[in-house]
Amino acid sequence: MNMLHITKSEITKRYKPIDSQAHKGTQGHALIVAGSYGKIGAAVLASKACLKSGSGLVTAFVPKCGYQILQISNPEIMTLTDVEETFISNIDFDIKPQAIAIGPGLGQEKITQDALHQFFKSNTVPLILDADALNILSINKNWLSLLQPKTTLTPHPKELERLIGKWNSDAEKLDKTKAFSKQYHVIVVMKGAPTVVIDGDAVYKNSTGNAALATAGSGDVLTGIITSLVAQSYEPITAAILGVYLHGLTADIALPKTGHHAFIASDIIKYLGEAFLTIENE
To answer: What does the alpha-carbon distance between residue 98 and residue 55 come to, in Å, rounded to a whole number?
Structure first.
C-alpha cells in the first residue's frame, strides 16, 4: 500500500506562499452552500473558516432564515438566499466561484435532495461535499456517477459507513474506502483519529490533531478550509492534505492554552493564522 505520512516536511513542499502582488480577485472565490432552520451555524463556521484560510472572496448560499445571521456574524462574507425560508430548494447563482462546498447543516428535505441532483447534473466547478450532502448521496448512490473526477468527500465514520457499508476492521474500512474512491474517482477525507486522505490507491495519514477536535462544528470548519484552498488553485488532493494538516495543527497549538474541554470549533478558526505561520516560518 502506498501510504504517506502528512508531516511538516511534506506540507512545506506543497504549501504555496501568497504572492506579494495578490489581491482579492486573484485569491479565489469560494461558494458555501449550507444551512437549514436551526443549523445556520454550520454555514457560519464553514464560510468563516473558508475566508480565514485565504480565499479572496467567499459567498454563502443559505435559506432565507440565514440571511441576517450570516450578515451579522460574518460581515466580510457575501450572502445569497434561496427562495425558501427554512431549507434550500434550488442551487442557483450568478457568481463564478472556483470551488463550491455543499452540505454543512443542509438538511435532507426531499426538495433539497432534488435540488442537489439537478445541480450535480450540470456542475463543472470543483466540489467539496460534507455532512447532509453525503447523507443524501448515501440514499441516492446512483448520483455518485454524476460527480466530477476528484470531487472531495469529507465523511465522519457514520457518514462513511452509509456510503460504503459496514466494516469489521480498520483494514477492511481502508480497503472499502479505497475501492469506493477508485470506483467513483473521488477523494475521500476519512475523518477520525488520525484523519486519512484517500485518492485511489494513494493513502495519506495525517500527523496533527488531538482529542480537542472532537467537538461540534469541527467538520464544518474543515470543509471551509479545504474549499478555500481549492479556490486558491491548489489541486484537490493537495488541498485535502494541507487542509487536514492545518485543521489538526490549530488544536495542537491551542491545547496548552485551552485544554481539551474548552476547545470549540470557533477556536480552530481562531488559531488558523498561527497554523499558517508555523508552515511559513519553517
So the answer is: 10
